[in-house]
Amino acid sequence: MDGMKVALAQINADIGRFQHNLAKHLAYIQLAREAEADIVVFPEMALTGYSLQDLALTLAMPSTSKKLDPLRQASQQIDIIASFPELSDHAAYIASAYFSGGEIRHIHRKLYLPINGIFNDRKDFKPGNHITVFPLRDQHIASMLVCRDIWHMDASLRCRELDASILFAPSAVPLRKITANGPGVSDFIDRTVQGYAEKSSQFFVFVNRVGFEEGICFYGGSLVADPFGTVLVKAPYLEETLVVAEVDWRELERKNRLLPLSYEQQPYASWRREVA
C-alpha cells in the first residue's frame, strides 16, 4: 500500500464516566469508518478523564479487561489507538493501546510524568520504562509516545532509531495563555511536531484533547506532519471534531532520497558508544 488514512478524534472526556466516554469513542469510530479511515486515534486518558487523583487505582484496568471488549470488537473493522489508566502489578500507568484485528497488539506506558503547575502525575501513576515499535496492518513500523514524552528529545529520537515510519502521540495539553494566533502553547507544540517529523524523517500524529476538567482547559489543535515537516491537517481549537489526514508512504522514500539522515545514524551510534 502507498498510504493510509489517519483519523484524529479530538474529543472531550467526562472524568470517571467510563461508559459515557466509551460510547463517545464508539460513535467517533463509526465516523472514522464512514470517512474510510484505516486508523482512528484518541487523546490521552480519554476513556476515563485525566485528573483522576484518588480515582486512579479505582478506574485503572488491566489490558485484558472485558471493559475494553467493545474496542477490541470495533478494531476488527478499523485500527484504534485509545488511552486509559492501565493496572499492572498493583500499579497504575497512563497507557495508550493499539487495537487491531480484535486484539490489543501494543501498549505504550507514559514515560515522563509531569509534576509542574497543575500536574502531579507521579502521585497517582508509575512511569513506563521502555519504548518499542509495532507493525501496522500494512507492515509499516509505528511507534507511540504519550503527551509529555514528546517534549523530551531522547524519546522521539529513540522512535527514529527503531526505524518507525510514523509516530502517534495521544495527548492532553492544556491551554496556558491566549495570543493573537490562538493558544500560546500551540506554537510550541506545532514547532515540536513539525521539527521532529522533519529531522527524524517520519510522519508525526499529535491528537490533543478539548474541553474542561477540574478547572483545566484542553485546547485541541491536533495535527499531522509529514517527513518534510509539512502540516497535512490541523484540527480547530476548543472544538470536538474528527479530521482525517492522508499519509503517503512514498513521501518517506522521497525524503530519504533528498536528505538521507536516517542512513547516517549507524555511524553516529557507533561513535556514541565508543565515546561512552
Describe the protein's architecture and organization.
By secondary structure, the protein is of the alpha/beta class. The protein has a single domain (3-275), classed as Carbon-nitrogen hydrolase (Nitrilase/N-carbamoyl-D-aminoacid amidohydrolase, 4-Layer Sandwich). The protein is 26% helix and 30% strand. The protein has seven helices and 16 strands. The chain has helices at 18-34, 56-59, 69-74, 153-161, 184-200, 250-258, 265-275; strands at 3-10, 39-41, 79-88, 91-100, 103-109, 134-135, 141-144, 166-171, 178-179, 182-183, 203-208, 210-213, 216-219, 223-225, 231-234, 241-248. Strands 5-4-3-2-1-16 form a six-stranded mixed β-sheet. The longest helix has 17 residues, at 18-34. It is globular.
Report how far apart the termini are.
41 Å
Helix count, per DSSP?
7
The dominant shape is: globular
Strand content: 25-35%
User: What number of domains?
Assistant: 1
What are the low-pLDDT stretches, counting only 5+ consecutive residues below 50?
none
H/E series, N to C?
EHEHHEEEEEHEEEHEEEEEEHH
Q: In which order are the strands of the major sheet placed?
A: 5-4-3-2-1-16
Assign the CATH superfamily.
Answer: Carbon-nitrogen hydrolase
What's the gyration radius in Å? 18 Å
Helix content: 25-40%
